[in-house]
């Protein structure tokens, strides 16, 4: 795992937008990119609206909350409003319905992702990190942390009393490149632990993916 320290959150956003643009340009053929939710990637998404080449991109979500598709807390709704509604990428979101369970949605989405990859590795997965060290919706002491075969699962998060859908380590480890964005002093303790291999984020380096941490100086204050 490599860490890149930027002066501020704007520097993180500019660099990450550049990394995404490079992956799209490098191709060849269709590129698949896992998007993430939360406040940290918002500025990067806005910068990427002017990027060309999105018609060759299949975009998907590294995790999602079990809420309706238009809910204010939906990662998919956020990514759409900030980025994919403004570009020509194909954006694949998990299904949601009152008559559907999170497990059913996760299984269907896993099949969709396998079709998108077509036997290839994910080209790029964007992630944030929570103050507890979680990445995607792989929270400490939840069942999805232990998953060794499935690529995408439902994960109940007791500490939040809510259900999530999430990429698992087997999927994350398959990626060619993982880019993790971390900003703010509240993330500093968890970031230090992750870079030592602890917390859920620390396990990203256990697979074949190249893992880049792009962080601001406040988040890196304990590194």
Explain how this protein is built.
The chain has helices at residues 9-26, 42-48, 75-82, 102-117, 169-172, 188-195, 199-202; strands spanning 2-6, 31-35, 57-61, 63-65, 90-91, 124-128, 152-157, 162-167, 177-182, 210-216. The longest helix has 18 residues, at 9-26. Helix 1 packs across helix 2. It has one domain: Rossmann fold, CATH 3.40.50. The chain has 223 residues and is an alpha/beta fold. It contains seven helices and ten strands. 29% of the residues lie in helices and 22% in strands. The strands form two sheets. It has a seven-stranded parallel β-sheet, with helices on both faces. Strands 4-8-7 form a three-stranded antiparallel β-sheet.
| Strand residue percentage | 15-25%
Number of helices: 7
CATH class term: Alpha Beta
Number of domains: 1
**Sheet with the most strands, sense and barrel status:** 7 strands, parallel
> Level of helix content?
25-40%
